[in-house]
């Protein structure tokens, strides 16, 4: 038995806890995997219920697991030296998240907070290494998934660094359209009810700054609010402000 296999065995959870996880309706970043490859990953997953307000891991915790979101929502955050949290990702059904690294004893650079009750599938990183070693097709698809996550991160930092707070907000509104938008006659209705404070955490701004910018966009007729939900009326205007690169929807998302 190889050292990797031995390590995987020592990290394998109780097999009684493992349950088959259907890939029906597979969405999110997990779309990078074929049905056959995802079935292999299911074989090493075990289910775990998650509750709103709980924390899956903190910055500095061991990064020895990969999670697959079956239901619910999870926020990935980074804490600044002043104690402020900035939201980097909003994981939803079908998303895969982890921090695979080539270094020994890796630790999480971010924290994960549960926003909605749900369920995740958990894979031990050591078990996954064995699968990747055994199945070259899965390893290639895993590389594609890592590339997708890297592109998503690059695009978000581009928005934050190049076009100011207004550009970052307009990009966020486009991402909301792609991730949680429903096309209606008047525009794109955002099904996710999101607060100004949450939006501020996503673009590194204050709630007051977001209030002011959204008010300006309402005056321009770019958006309106209906029963606490945003209705985007002029997406081309938003694209012009943030110099939209027309990224695929798999990248331009929350």
From TrEMBL:
<dbReference type="GO" id="GO:0005829">
    <property type="term" value="C:cytosol"/>
</dbReference>
<dbReference type="GO" id="GO:0003700">
    <property type="term" value="F:DNA-binding transcription factor activity"/>
</dbReference>
<keyword id="KW-0238">DNA-binding</keyword>
<dbReference type="InterPro" id="IPR000595">
    <property type="entry name" value="cNMP-bd_dom"/>
</dbReference>
<protein>
    <submittedName>
        <fullName>Crp/Fnr family transcriptional regulator</fullName>
    </submittedName>
</protein>
<dbReference type="InterPro" id="IPR036390">
    <property type="entry name" value="WH_DNA-bd_sf"/>
</dbReference>
<dbReference type="InterPro" id="IPR018490">
    <property type="entry name" value="cNMP-bd_dom_sf"/>
</dbReference>
<feature type="domain" description="Cyclic nucleotide-binding">
    <location>
        <begin position="41"/>
        <end position="99"/>
    </location>
</feature>
<dbReference type="GO" id="GO:0003677">
    <property type="term" value="F:DNA binding"/>
</dbReference>
<dbReference type="InterPro" id="IPR012318">
    <property type="entry name" value="HTH_CRP"/>
</dbReference>
<keyword id="KW-0010">Activator</keyword>
<dbReference type="InterPro" id="IPR050397">
    <property type="entry name" value="Env_Response_Regulators"/>
</dbReference>
<feature type="domain" description="HTH crp-type">
    <location>
        <begin position="163"/>
        <end position="236"/>
    </location>
</feature>
<dbReference type="InterPro" id="IPR036388">
    <property type="entry name" value="WH-like_DNA-bd_sf"/>
</dbReference>
<keyword id="KW-0805">Transcription regulation</keyword>
<keyword id="KW-0804">Transcription</keyword>
<dbReference type="Pfam" id="PF13545">
    <property type="entry name" value="HTH_Crp_2"/>
</dbReference>
<dbReference type="Pfam" id="PF00027">
    <property type="entry name" value="cNMP_binding"/>
</dbReference>
<dbReference type="InterPro" id="IPR014710">
    <property type="entry name" value="RmlC-like_jellyroll"/>
</dbReference>
């Amino acid at each position: 038995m190889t050292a990797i296999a031995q390590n995987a065995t020592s990290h394998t959870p109780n097999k009684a806890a493992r349950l088959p996880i259907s890939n029906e309706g597979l969405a999110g970043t997990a779309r990078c995997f074929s049905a056959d490859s995802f079935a292999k990953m299911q074989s090493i997953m075990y289910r775990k219920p998650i509750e709103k307000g709980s924390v899956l891991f903190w910055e500095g915790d061991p990064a020895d697991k990969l999670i697959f979101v079956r239901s619910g929502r999870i926020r990935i955050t980074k804490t600044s030296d002043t104690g402020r949290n900035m939201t980097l990702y909003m994981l939803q059904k079908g998303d895969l998240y982890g921090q695979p690294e080539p270094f020994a004893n890796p630790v999480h650079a971010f924290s994960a907070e549960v926003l909605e009750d749900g369920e995740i599938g958990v894979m031990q990183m050591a078990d996954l290494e064995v699968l990747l070693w055994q199945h070259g097709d899965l390893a290639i698809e895993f590389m594609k998934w890592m590339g997708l996550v890297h592109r998503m991160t690059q695009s978000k930092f581009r928005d934050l660094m190049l076009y100011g707070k207004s550009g970052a907000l307009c990009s966020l509104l486009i991402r909301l359209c792609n991730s949680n938008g429903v096309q209606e006659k008047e525009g794109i209705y955002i099904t996710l009810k999101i607060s100004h404070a949450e939006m501020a955490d996503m673009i590194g701004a204050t709630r007051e700054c977001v209030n002011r910018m959204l008010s300006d966009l309402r005056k321009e007729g770019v958006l309106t609010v209906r029963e606490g939900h945003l209705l985007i009326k002029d997406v081309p205007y938003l694209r012009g402000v943030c110099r939209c690169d027309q990224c695929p929807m798999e990248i331009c998302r929350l």
